[in-house]
Design a protein that fits this description.
The chain is built from four helices and no strands. The termini are far apart. It is 72% helix and 0% strand. The protein has one domain. The chain is mainly alpha-helical and 87 residues long.
Amino acid sequence: MSSKVKILVPCKEANHVCDKIQYEEASFWEKIKLSMHLIYCRACRKYSINNNRLSNTIKTSKVACLDKKCKDAMKKELDKAMKNQLK
């Protein structure tokens, strides 16, 4: 095995690292390699910008989610309605 460190990464890997950064799972070295890739790849820069925009939109949104109890009640009602439809 070679002990050389690869700095240049393919677009597929760069996009994967971009996604990992969104969920704060990327290592420091992955962030460095992504930054190097973004210098020369316009498509991945655009992907990264859109990914950041999506992350920021989700973080700042004021969407309220249902709690588990409400979800379970809705599921029971749906199952009941589906059973009645099949009869």
